[in-house]
Amino acid sequence: MRGGPGEAERRQRWGRLFEELDSNKDGRVDIRELRQGLARLGGGDPDRGAQQGISPEGDTDPDGGLDLEEFILYLQEREQRLLLLFHSLDRNQDGQIDVSEIQQSFRALGISISLEQAEKILHSMDRDGTMTIDWQEWRDHFLLHSLENVEDVLYFWKHSTVLDIGECLTVPDEFSEQEKLTGMWWKQLVAGAVAGAVSRTGTAPLDRLKVFMQVHASKTNRLNILGGLRSMIQEGGVHSLWRGNGINVLKIAPESAIKFMAYEQIKRAIRGQQETLHVQERFVAGSLAGATAQTIIYPMEVLKTRLTLRRTGQYKGLLDCAWQILEREGPRAFYRGYLPNVLGIIPYAGIDLAVYETLKNRWLQQYSHDSADPGILVLLACGTISSTCGQIASYPLALVRTRMQAQASIEGAPQLSMLGLLRHILSQEGVRGLYRGIAPNFMKVIPAVSISYVVYENMKQALGVTSR
């Protein structure tokens, strides 16, 4: 690898750069001077790069500028980060980054770029026309310019933490090393949990209607949305529309925590020495983490279904419901419907991830000229579309799971296995029978996404989660 000048030479080079940027010769570089200097040097986002340069980490005196020593300290830290990133991209460790290594790095993120796009990225940094980037070219290009890297994509494109539509089968979001070191990851998870609680409470009537129709709707009774709502209100009043919501909110925290911890452990086992996971590996790790979390908290899923469907006065509360199930049906009842539930993770997580990554790739390729930030509407649209597609694919298994959880509490209902229940539904009602209750399920998606996003952003502010 070329380069490696001595410390004295580096300080001289940085000193010359400082003098060039210090246009008013007051011995300090402020944001205005840094912005002007970046514009002269070309490339990157001058505003963002200037803000990164004059930052609390770089400026030891909170006076809005950097003196020579502070400027050198900032550049030293910046070079260290750049060198680490250079080595992570230089996969064959030959001291140069070529087109194939740029493509591999993006592919590891789940972002497909063409050979032409990779060459365009490389050409913007290649000064000597060799179609490779050595350390000096890399350093000089990014030393002051804003560095859009892996962390930007990870930060801006979170959706399973941000959006809660009542299902917890999505592949967990990735957190950057910076977020893990600063503790921002747990604050984001807490913000996501609170957002999920508010979102589920706000859409609880539609969720209860969905479960009610999954279990009770059939060809013979022609139960529809208005009929279902009328029936529930007549039986228990308006407040009965929130039955089962308490435990639905209660299970968010343990499920999120278990899934996150399991995902990190499984990811570490799969990754080995790799820097990042490929999309297929993320799907495997996310599915296994989801299965682990569901296995541990599944009794709460059964209780949620029973409490949602309960008649007035049937149970005194959560503990009474659990005790009655245990006394009458035994401990195995707490895992009724477990198999279709776990099998449902595969189509849901797979399609949700595939659709989301496809939409993300398309946006990044066409519109991410200066930033990886998609904006609120794009993020909400991509997350909503991908989650909805995942729900459509896994819905028949979700319906079978709910009926298996509920069938012991319904008088005269046959106690069927997963395959037996599938055959029974198909023979009695056809394929449409596997999608009973999907209308209220779709109706709650947009309000659930909107509520969860607004609450998430407010919780981030309250917890002091820094935004870029």
TrEMBL record:
Membrane topology value: Multi-pass membrane protein
Organism field: Bos mutus grunniens
Coiled-coil residues: none
GO cellular component terms listed in the entry, alphabetical order: mitochondrial inner membrane
Catalysed transformations (reactions): 3'-AMP(in) + ADP(out) + H(+)(out) = 3'-AMP(out) + ADP(in) + H(+)(in); 3'-AMP(out) + phosphate(in) = 3'-AMP(in) + phosphate(out); dAMP(in) + ADP(out) + H(+)(out) = dAMP(out) + ADP(in) + H(+)(in); Mg(2+)(in) + ADP(out) + ATP(in) + H(+)(out) = Mg(2+)(out) + ADP(in) + ATP(out) + H(+)(in)
One GO biological process term: adenine nucleotide transport
Subcellular location: Mitochondrion inner membrane
Principal place of residence: mitochondrion
Protein name: Mitochondrial adenyl nucleotide antiporter SLC25A23
Entries under InterPro entries matching the protein: EF-hand-dom_pair, EF_Hand_1_Ca_BS, EF_hand_dom, MCP, MCP_dom_sf, MCP_transmembrane
Record has Transmembrane helix as a keyword: yes
Summary of the function given for this chain in its UniProt record: Electroneutral antiporter that mediates the transport of adenine nucleotides through the inner mitochondrial membrane. Originally identified as an ATP-magnesium/inorganic phosphate antiporter, it also acts as a broad specificity adenyl nucleotide antiporter. By regulating the mitochondrial matrix adenine nucleotide pool could adapt to changing cellular energetic demands and indirectly regulate adenine nucleotide-dependent metabolic pathways. Also acts as a regulator of mitochondrial calcium uptake and can probably transport trace amounts of other divalent metal cations in complex with ATP.
Domain annotation EF-hand: ranges: 9-44, 77-112, 113-148
One of the record's GO molecular function terms: antiporter activity
Family: Belongs to the mitochondrial carrier (TC 2.A.29) family.
